[in-house]
Each structure stands twice: as structure tokens, then as C-alpha cells.
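[recover] target loaded
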């Protein structure tokens, strides 16, 4: 096998990331040397490679599905929103600037304005991303690429480098994924195709239905009609499965009350359930840090935005954010800052991670991110923070609570710890902990030791499970994605598509005119 595929979608959140990961895991189980690729990603959830490059967490997860180490080649352009009007651009793993919407983003209406850069700059990036893709294709048998948003954003097509732009540039066949659980999937498939140019349509091989509930035989007449209208087949119907949205891309889309991550059905080892409340701060980044807590039997994790929602929490987490000063102001405006101070005074556990750690400190000097200058923190930890222009991107290892810990750091804030008990790179005072280390809770021994401390401080009779392995659970999730492809997609046809490209002679569908 020597080829590639672009997994596009009718909309954002159609399931492109998990389908890409599933195809990658299916291929690697067939002995194929495969790699993931996303030319341009927009996400507040990022990861640091062993080479010190920052990429989207979704691509790091997809690399794990391929059983390879992630690299900057797999996500050459990463946009990290700093608000509705600006994003930090990370190119080949390194930040290169902050871009305003008026000056740099494609501007005249349409969906996903933050997912494309302004025309001139975008065109200059096309050569870079095609070079990265070519390097991966030289090194691997197959490269499975993920698109962004929808390829039918016709106002942005001229400067697109992540959907049909990369498909045309690298001659990749395109599989369009649609979320049938939302409804309107047939119209979405047909409309997506009809809005594309003839040259783009030639690369769209067919469709993949995602998140189907019910009897597939009831869907088949519609699939036959879709084939008659478009001349393109459906490569599979994937059933709805709970718990497969791993390493979500977009922290801006987290529902303040709907994004409840609960642990597995297994009961707690001790007598009590441990409740974790995560403050859903603006521009929340790497909220995936709490996934490891939710994986523990007997631990329930929820996102909150009101002080009364902290009252029954055994642990409150203040997570990372791309807007530390803005998040601090938000906590104060909503009364959460005062609730956190009361918790600390009562000896009830609080954990700050990255931006959350900085918020818990004495003060922040920020002339980089918010340019707010001197800002008082919550003064729960003896820490002074100064924002540096150069971003810290590292993969630290260390020890805490008598256990080995691995993590990764992504931050501009430099913390000076003046007192307290050392805790990773941060500190602890009483039941308040703070660290810049993302991913530390994925270290099983450390997570269990930390939860024992939390349970003791909260007065809970809770004992973490001795056999919970976060890495093993992640592997199980990735295998479930591979199983979905293997069991519910036409893998023979998918194999031919990846190896040989889109079928020749596919009909052209004029915009607005059924076949």
C-alpha cells in the first residue's frame, strides 16, 4: 500500500477526528505503517512532542492510534484562539505571532471565520503544509488526513489549505463524514458535493455516515437514492457509541452544564464517591487534563460556572486557559473567586493547572497575553507570575507525593515560587496545589496518591482503584474506534480508495441542480 486519504465532514464536529483515528488504528492492525495529518487546526487543546513542538491534541491522539510518536509534521499549522477576534499562530510547532481577525482572517461572512487565515498568508502556507505531507508520505505507507469544518465553505475556498486545497495539491481521495444524529445528513451530503467545483468533486469518492441509531436496513433506501443522485457510494454506517469523543479539539465549545464527564460504571473501591468540579473558565485550554480523573471508578467530574456548584465538590480544578487575566476577572465576576478563597480557608482541596495555577498566585505581570500589566491574583499560593514573550514548551519528568510523574508544559507565564511545599514545578499550601504540568494526572501512581490526599482533606472514605491504567484505557478507546471501522465500514473498498485514489469518471453535480 502506498497512498493517502482526506477525511472531510459536512460540518464541524461531524466526527472527523475520531473517524481518522479509527481508520489509523484499523490500518496499523493490518500491518500498515500509517501516520495522521491535519494541515491546519484550530484548538485550545494542544500537546508537546518529544522534540518540543506544539501540535493539536487530536493529532497526538491519532499518532497514538498509529502507534507512533507525534511530530510537528502531523499538524504544521495550529491556531489557538485568544478570543473571538484573534488567534495565536503556531507554525511547525512554534508560535510565530498573534493574528487579529480584521487584519488576517478571511473576512466577508460565512462560517468558521477563525479556521482560515487571510488569503496572502494562507497561500504562502500551502507550500509548507504540502511539503510536510510529502515528507510523511515518503516515510509511511499511508497518511490519513483530517479536514476542518466543511469543504463547502465556498467563501473560503480560494485560500483553503486544509480541505479541498490540500486534497487538490496532493491528489488525495476525499471521504465526507456526516453526523446523522443531528438530522439532515442526506441534504448535507448532497449539498456539500453540489457546492464544490468540478475539479474538487472529482476527488470526492463518497460518504461515511456517523452516529447512526437503529436498524441500518431502514437507512439503505436513502443511501441508494444518494448514490443515484451523486454517483457516489457510502463506505459505511458507523453506529452511535458513547464515550468516543476523546481529546476534543475545541475548548471554546465546551457546554457549561452539558459537558459532564462521568467515570466508568464500576463502583468506587472505598465507600464514597469523589466529586470533582472544574471551573469552566473562558478560553479553557487542555481541559483534557481531567480525563484521567474521570477514568477512575468512583470519581465524577463536571464543569461548573456558579459558586453554588462548588459546595458539594471534594476537589475543585481551575484549569488551563489562553486568557489568564480574562479568566481571573471571570472568576471574580461570577463569585467563584470568593468561593475558592473560602474553600482554601476551610482546608478544602483546590488544584490549579497552568493558567489556573497562575490565577491562584499573588500577582501577575502580563505585557504579552492580555497586556494588562500588574494584576492581583487570588493569593492562595505564594507565587508571582511574569509573562515572557517566548513560550515554554517542554516534556518534564519528576516526582511528587512519592511517585514518578510525566507531563508537558505550554505557557508564557514564568512562575516564581517564594514559599510553600514543592509540588512538581509549582507548590502546595495546605489543601491548595498548583503546577504548570499538563497531563500529570495520567501518571497512574501519582494520580492515585493525589486522590488519596484529596479524599483525606475532604473527609471522604474513598480509595482509588489500584489497577486503573489510563494508558490502557486510552488504548481500549482507540481499539474501539478501530473496531467501528473494521466492523461497520466497507474496508475492502476503503483499502482500494487509500491505495488507488478516487474512482475515475465520477459525475459532476451542478450547484443547486439534482442529478
Amino acid at each position: 500500500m502506498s497512498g493517502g486519504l482526506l477525511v472531510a465532514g459536512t460540518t464541524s464536529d461531524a466526527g472527523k477526528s475520531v473517524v481518522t483515528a479509527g481508520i489509523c488504528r484499523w490500518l496499523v492492525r493490518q500491518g500498515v505503517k500509517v501516520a495522521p495529518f491535519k494541515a491546519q487546526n484550530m484548538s485550545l487543546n494542544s500537546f508537546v512532542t518529544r522534540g518540543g513542538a506544539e501540535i493539536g491534541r487530536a493529532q497526538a491522539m491519532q499518532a497514538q492510534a498509529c502507534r507512533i510518536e507525534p511530530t510537528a509534521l502531523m499538524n504544521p499549522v495550529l491556531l489557538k484562539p485568544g478570543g473571538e477576534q484573534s488567534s495565536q499562530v503556531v507554525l511547525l510547532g512554534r508560535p510565530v505571532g498573534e493574528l487579529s481577525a480584521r487584519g488576517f482572517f478571511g473576512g466577508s461572512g460565512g462560517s468558521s471565520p477563525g479556521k482560515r487565515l487571510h488569503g496572502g498568508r494562507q497561500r504562502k502556507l500551502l507550500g509548507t503544509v504540502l511539503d510536510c505531507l510529502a515528507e510523511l508520505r515518503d516515510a509511511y505507507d499511508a497518511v490519513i488526513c483530517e479536514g476542518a469544518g466543511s469543504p463547502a465553505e465556498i467563501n473560503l475556498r480560494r485560500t483553503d489549505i486544509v480541505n479541498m486545497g490540500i486534497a487538490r495539491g496532493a491528489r488525495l481521495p476525499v471521504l465526507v463524514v456526516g453526523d446523522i444524529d443531528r438530522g439532515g445528513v442526506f441534504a448535507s451530503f448532497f449539498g456539500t458535493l453540489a457546492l464544490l467545483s468540478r475539479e474538487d468533486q472529482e476527488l470526492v469518492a463518497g460518504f461515511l455516515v456517523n452516529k447512526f441509531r437503529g436498524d441500518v436496513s431502514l437507512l439503505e433506501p436513502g443511501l441508494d437514492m444518494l448514490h443515484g443522485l451523486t454517483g457516489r457510494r457510502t463506505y459505511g454506517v458507523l453506529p452511535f457509541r458513547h464515550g468516543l469523543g476523546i481529546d476534543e479539539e475545541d475548548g471554546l465549545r465546551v457546554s457549561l452544564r452539558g459537558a459532564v464527564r462521568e467515570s466508568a460504571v464500576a463502583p468506587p473501591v472505598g465507600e464514597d464517591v469523589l466529586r470533582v468540579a472544574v471551573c469552566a473558565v473562558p478560553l479553557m485550554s487542555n481541559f483534557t487534563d481531567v480525563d484521567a480523573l474521570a477514568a477512575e471508578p468512583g470519581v465524577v467530574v463536571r464543569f461548573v460556572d456558579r459558586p453554588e456548584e462548588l459546595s458539594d465538590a471534594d476537589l475543585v480544578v481551575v484549569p488551563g486557559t489562553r486568557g489568564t487575566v480574562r479568566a481571573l476577572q471571570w472568576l471574580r465576576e461570577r463569585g467563584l473567586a470568593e468561593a475558592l478563597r473560602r474553600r482554601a480557608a476551610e482546608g478544602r482541596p483546590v488544584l490549579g493547572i497552568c493558567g489556573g495555577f497562575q490565577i491562584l498566585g499573588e500577582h501577575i505581570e502580563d505585557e504579552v497575553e492580555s497586556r494588562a500589566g500588574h494584576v492581583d491574583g487570588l493569593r492562595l499560593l505564594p507565587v508571582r507570575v511574569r509573562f515572557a514573550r517566548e513560550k515554554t514548551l517542554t516534556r518534564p519528568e519528576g516526582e511528587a507525593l512519592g511517585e514518578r510523574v510525566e507531563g508537558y508544559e505550554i505557557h508564557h507565564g514564568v512562575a516564581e515560587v517564594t514559599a510553600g511545599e514543592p509540588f512538581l514545578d509549582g507548590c502546595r499550601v495546605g489543601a491548595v496545589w498548583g503546577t504548570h504540568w499538563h497531563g500529570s494526572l495520567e501518571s497512574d501512581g501519582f494520580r492515585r496518591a493525589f486522590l488519596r490526599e484529596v479524599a483525606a482533606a475532604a473527609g471522604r472514605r474513598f480509595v482509588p482503584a489500584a489497577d486503573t491504567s489510563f494508558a490502557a484505557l486510552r488504548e481500549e478507546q482507540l481499539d474501539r474506534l478501530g473496531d467501528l471501522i473494521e466492523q461497520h465500514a466497507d474496508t475492502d473498498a476503503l483499502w482500494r480508495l487509500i491505495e488507488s485514489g478516487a474512482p475515475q469518471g465520477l459525475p459532476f453535480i451542478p450547484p443547486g441542480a439534482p442529478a
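[recover] notes: Residues 267-464 form a domain with the Rossmann fold fold (CATH 3.40.50.880).
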